[in-house]
Amino acid sequence: NGQYDVTSEVKTWMGVLSGITAGHNRPQLCVEAFYGPAAGGECFPTERQMYDGMWSCVINGADAFGLWATGQEDSGGPLCDGTQATASQLYGFVSDTTGALAQLEPVLVMPDTPGSLASHAQADSTVGWKAKTGPDGTIYIFAANYTGSPVSDTFNLAGPAQTVYAYADNPDNSNRLVCSNCSSFTDSFNYFATHVYQISGGTSGGTS
After folding, report:
1. Judging by DSSP bridges, how do beta strands 64-70 and 29-35 pair with one another?
2. How far apart are CA 28 and CA 164, in angstroms?
């Protein structure tokens, strides 16, 4: 709208993050830019939408993240679900989502283990996914609905699991139990939504 040079800001952060990712074989940058009403946008994302954007970037190979807001981030404003948030709540959203990402850092730096998932019902173009195995043997499947409509998907694991939890998936950011002693499970995705499945006791596939 002529009041804020977003292009200049992007160049600045690209320079900073290029330094952070120096030495990576395939550094990829994920940027979540949040535009409040004063910057010509319509709403700020909800915390769940921030999670969805972040995990979608992980599935697509991002290994660096940049988040910033323009507009009314210092005074709060409307969220994209029609509710309102104060400035402290908005920054709380960022703290929660980046904190969840940081907790999984030991997992995210591990190689992909696609063989941990035998198959799933939806096409990869509808529900995209990535599997990793943490240092303690816990399997994580990151899954995202790439469509603008709600979908369900059934995931068939490479081996039986003791428990499957959806990581930080409840409204209070606690883990949601999906199933126990199971070899497959079905879950629902809202439009463009994501889930991170934390699988204990499963069979890890080969790395890629």
Report:
1. parallel
2. 29
